[in-house]
Amino acid sequence: MSKLPKNHKFIDLSDYGRPAARLIANSLKKTSFTPVQVTVLFIISGLIAIACMLYGYYWAAAFFLILKSVLDAADGELARIKKTPSYTGRYFDSVADIILNFFIFLALWHITDSLLIYALLAFVGIQLQGTLYNYYYVILRNKFNGDTTSRVFEDKTPIALEGENQRNVNFLFALYKLLYGVFDKTIYFLDKKATGSKPFHKLFMTAVSTFGLGFQLLIISIMLVLGWVTFIIPFFIGYTAMIFVFIGIRKVL
Question: Which of 59, 61, 74 is nearest to 15 (CA)?
Answer without folding.
Answer: 74
